[in-house]
Design brief:
With 190 residues, the chain is mostly helical. The chain has helices spanning 9-15, 18-30, 35-42, 46-58, 95-121, 123-126, 128-133, 145-167, and strands spanning 3-5, 33-34, 62-64, 76-79, 83-85. Helix 1 packs parallel to helix 5 (95-121) and helix 2 packs across helix 4 (46-58). The longest helix is centred in the middle third of the chain and has 27 residues, at 95-121. Residues 10-104 form the HTH arsR-type domain.
């Protein structure tokens, strides 16, 4: 699996910007693109997108793809990894990293909420089969720390197996982009 480990607070802050997080996602799902192509998808000017791409590149999330350009004015970008991981617990010994990590997690949580809201907004256009196959749910469990850790590992394994299935699909074969969000954490409420 192509995973980039994120340990630097400055890099976390760079990715915590909603537009940059979205651009990285678009480069991961859509492959290399130019600032103009990305700007069309996020409704931002190419100059603004170029700025955000430079920040992402400075933090090591994306890199130029000059071999794809047809002229010197056209700057292509690609993601350097398919996934990024970090662990909030690593910030307990570093207050700056804790602040940066929680800011990044807030941005990611909002992106997940926005993605699900977009799904709900488009339900009528998606068709009965796709809507019926979708799922959303929760469970309130009482677990020990070790059990929570095991649950997380098991859920990650399930996603890993389905990611392998996903890799075998290509546009036009009946597959569509599917978002799978898994969260398990200790509730802040009693």
């Amino acid at each position: 699996m192509d995973v980039q480990r994120l340990d630097d607070a400055a890099h976390m802050r760079a990715l915590a910007h909603p537009t940059r997080l979205r651009l990285l996602g678009l480069l991961r799902t859509g492959g290399p693109q130019t600032a103009a192509m990305l700007g069309d998808q996020v409704d931002e000017a190419p100059g603004t997108i170029s700025y955000h791409c430079k920040r992402l590149a400075d933090a090591g999330f994306i890199e130029p793809a000059p071999e794809l350009g047809t002229d010197r004015r056209e700057r292509w970008w690609r993601a350097v990894a398919q996934h990024t991981s970090w662990n909030l617990a690593d910030g307990f010994d570093d207050p700056d990293r804790m602040l940066a990590g929680t800011a990044l997690d807030r941005t990611v949580a909002q992106a997940y909420a926005d993605e699900y809201t977009a799904f709900l907004d488009h339900v009528p256009a998606l068709g009965r089969e796709w809507v019926a196959a979708s799922n959303s749910g929760d469970r309130t469990l009482r677990l020990t720390v070790d059990e929570l850790r095991a649950l997380g590992a098991e859920l990650a394994g399930v996603l890993d197996r389905w990611e392998a299935v996903s890799a075998g699909h290509e546009p036009g074969d009946g597959s569509e982009r599917v978002t799978a969000v898994v969260q398990s954490y200790r509730s802040a409420r009693a």
